[in-house]
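Dock pyridoxal-5'-phosphate; give full complex structure.
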Amino acid sequence: MTAPARPAAEGDGAPIPLARPVVGEREEELVLTTLRSGQLSLGPLLGDFERAFADRLGVGHASAVSSGTAGLHLALRAAGVEAGDEVITTPLSFVASANAIVYEGARPVFCDIDRRTLNLDPGAVGAAIGPRTRGLLPVHIFGYPADLPAFERLARGHDLFVVEDACEALGAHHADGPPVGARGNLAVFGFYPNKQLTTGEGGMVVCPDGAAKARIDSERNQGRAPDMSWLDHDRLGYNYRLSELACALGLAQLERLDELLAARRSLAAGYAERLSAPDRPAALDGLELPCPDAGGDRRSPFAYVVQVPAGADRDAAIAALRARGIDSKPYLPAIHLMSFYRERFGHLEGELPVCEDVARRSLALPFFPGLSDTETDRVCTALAEALAVCSA
Ligand SMILES: *Cc1c(COP(=O)(O)O)cnc(C)c1O
């Protein structure tokens, strides 16, 4: 959902994109040094980036890969998924979390979501576990922690694996202590330009132990073991490597991750304050905002996704926002109702009513560090105007 980078402009009616990566002098310096080093892949920065990321999260092992999707694929393989298995996952996600299950010939079993958090509902998951269920793949959607304690209990009781899609949740925390991705499960982060941290394209798999990391390191590199010579391969592998240039960018972003995360938190707070102000325009009544942190779980805001009031025409609101120079997106569509998933797995409308209602009403607003107060004001004013004409 990233728009092309445009120079920052504010207050003058310039178009406001949905997302924009924040890269500065340090990123330029590290990338340029790497460019001049003569080593553009499989060099020293790969291990440096993995160690710095693992340290930041407080975990022992991490494996850098070419995308979040590639990371999900290798994590599912490392978890032991096989053709014919069922993996329970959420229908309200970026399509990659379900696609990775299909890559291995397994079947994604979609369960409905919790209306408050928009994450996979543990009650629905418990009811869907059957003889072919092999694992659970919860997603921390929009940066809000999924209920991992509940999923881990279910997994222990039924001998299932847990792979976490943490692609949108770098910097989030669970109520029971650990940062998202640091619970000891295989967990996958993504570094596409709209994420909390970017490497252009890229991802990271947090591994529970050295053996999982060794397997993923090998499979990302065509199945070569670390002690084997070039062009010798002892298992099926892929080219899911992350280049040195991407690692350089990632290292620079990690150095200022706290600043990037703080900017997103303050931006989310700014939206919430404006959109829920007692004197807000009446057209905003019935608008649902991202749930506030509750019970000790802490969101790391990834996108700012609202749900238009029931009865409002979301797609007309998007068009009205566009007419005012503001980019927004229907985010996210329900995966089980995408044509590929309908055709391959026979899904029908009405199967997952909470997800489908949220998917019909959800709207992502511009959200990236660097969005100014003036621009945030403009988005909120335009949203009120858009809803006033779309809620008739
Ligand atoms: C970004 C994202 C991914 C991975 O995307 P890539 O573009 O492959 O890095 C996976 N799942 C979710 C929920 C995401 O938001």
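Observed: The beta strands are 61-65, 86-89, 107-110, 133-137, 161-165, 186-190, 203-207, 304-307, 362-365.
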